[in-house]
Amino acid sequence: MCKHNLHRLKRLRISFNGMYGEIPSSLEQCSQLEYVSLRSNSFTGNVPTQIGKLTMLQELYLGANYLSGNIPKEIANLTRLQWLGLHNNNLSGNIPKEIGNLRMLQWLNLNTNKLSDSIPKEICALTNLQTLDVSANNFTGHVPREIGNLTMLQLLDLSTNELSGNIPVEIGALTNLQYLDMSFNNFSDHVPREIGNAKRLQSLYLSNNKLSGNIPKAIGALTNLQNLDVSVNNLSGNVPKEIGNLKMLKWLNVRTNKLSGNIPKDIGRLTILQTLSMNFNNLSGQVPREIWNLTMLQALYLGNNMLSGNIPIEIGALTDLQYLDMSFNNFSDHVPREVGNLTSLQSLYLNNNKLSGKIPKDIGALTNLQNLAMNFNNFSGQVPREIWNLTMLHSLYLGNNNLSGNIPKEIDALTNLQI
């Protein structure tokens, strides 16, 4: 394609079009190219081996096409390459170990392909790398311990593969890391305390693995953390009080583990927290009153634990709350009328507790409510007429209580109710 007038071409950008067919091997004749972007088209076939002849290339973007076959080892000839994007294709086979020759590389994105085998340790020779994304592939084996050599890394995404073994302690050497995602793999053993050395981390995702042991106290050193997810593992022991040091935290998810003991009151120091998920554990005792100081909470999931005590009137301060799940616990006494202040609430699950008294008519003020479950408790008296004002309701569960009286005709107003 560069036979005639384009042999001096340095930049080629035809991304975000509807181009299809194979990438022409004649591209090699554009030997002066420094920048090529063909991403977000409908190109098919293999990545041509001739691309390895474009030795002046600094940036190559072929992502978001329908390319298949292997990553050609000839790509290792592109020793000036700084940015390489092959993501969102159908590439298969392994990452060629020759990729370790690309010592200038700063950005490598291979996510959402069908790549397999282990991650080659040669990739850890790319000491200028700032972004490494190999998520959503079929990689197996262990993370090479040489990963600790990539001290310039700011983003490391290994999620949604079949990686196993432990999380290497060398992760702690990545002191520039801001984003780490190792979720949806088969990692086992404990979370290394050395992770506390990665003090620039803003997002840490370790969910959906087979991790065990305690949540390390060292995690409390990650004071820039905004998102922490260790859910769906086999973690046990107490939630460390040091988590209260993470003042920047907006999202905390520890659900579906084997955590026990009380919820630490130190969580009440996380004043900008928006989502707190602690459901499906073995937590016990009362919910500390400090939790009700978290006025920026939008979602609070405490269900499926062994929590007890009453629901305090302070709950009415959480006016941004949209999702509240306290189901399958041992909460007792009445539901405070202050729950009617939660006018942003879309889902309220209080089922399977030991709650008693009357259902407060103030629930009728929750006009955004779509799901209301209060079944399997000890509520008595009549269903307050105000509940029939909740015209957004999709589901309503009040069964297995001691309620009395008629079902009023106003129920006909709940036209969205799915029975």
Automatic annotation (TrEMBL):
This protein's GO CC annotations: plasma membrane
Predominant place of localization: membrane
Membrane topology value: Single-pass type I membrane protein
Domain Disease resistance R13L4/SHOC-2-like LRR positions: 72-187, 239-351
Cellular localization per UniProt: Cell membrane
Gene3D superfamilies: Ribonuclease Inhibitor (3.80.10.10)
GO biological process per UniProt: defense response; post-embryonic development; response to other organism
Pfam families named in the record: LRR_1, LRR_14
TM segment ranges: none
Keyword match Cell membrane: yes
Keywords annotated in UniProt: Cell membrane, Glycoprotein, Leucine-rich repeat, Membrane, Repeat, Signal, Transmembrane, Transmembrane helix
Name of the protein in question: Leucine-rich repeat receptor-like protein kinase
